[in-house]
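Pipeline run #58 for the internal structure catalog. This entry was flagged by the ingest filter as a single-chain record with no existing model, so it goes straight to prediction. Upstream metadata was stripped on purpose; only the residue string is passed forward. Reviewer on rotation: M.T. Logging verbosity set to normal.
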Amino acid sequence: MREEYAASVRGRPIPKQHVETFLSTGLPRGAGNCATSHDAAAQARRHRQQRRWATQVIVTDQLARQACAERNLPPPDDVLPMHLLTVPETDVADLGSIIAAALAHSPAARALLADLEREQHVPETAVRDYYDRNQDRFLTPDALRRGVDPYDEPDPSDIHPYEHVREDIAQQLRHAAARRAFFDWLDRARADVVYAEGHEHPGDPSQPDHEHRH
């Protein structure tokens, strides 16, 4: 791979300058290594991990663009994920910083996730099972104020009826299934990516600085 490229995605090179531009915009909390020491070695390690983290965000954008094209989805905005957007900390916790940032920065990644969500089918039995196992989430406001125990045979009037919350539950389950499908797709798609030295995945165990984050 030529020295000016950070990675190659199915033969398409990603210039190192794209990574450096992305890094120059700043990083969301939790990105890369979280070392706070001012020790020079620790700072160098942190910068290497941030560079690898940023490479993954840009690689994910490129892979998503190719997946959108293969699915005949409308082309996303023709911009690389350079401009830093706010990445909610809850998304970083649920998705991992790389995927959360990729979805925040990449229109293609968001389009792919939405298409995957449209493909998900949630059986009625799964929706009903979720409702029955999570009664605490469906207490009425009045029941919450009175401190009703949802698992101690509450009065039916203290729980939102199934038919009132069914669609919201089904949507939540489709959303969760789509995220799992996105993770699976990304794991498969990244198998064909070739990285330049210093731009490997931050969790690559062959690298001395590795830490297992997504």
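catalog note: The longest helix spans residues 40-70.
catalog note: DSSP finds eight helices and three strands in the chain.
status: ready for reviewer M.T.
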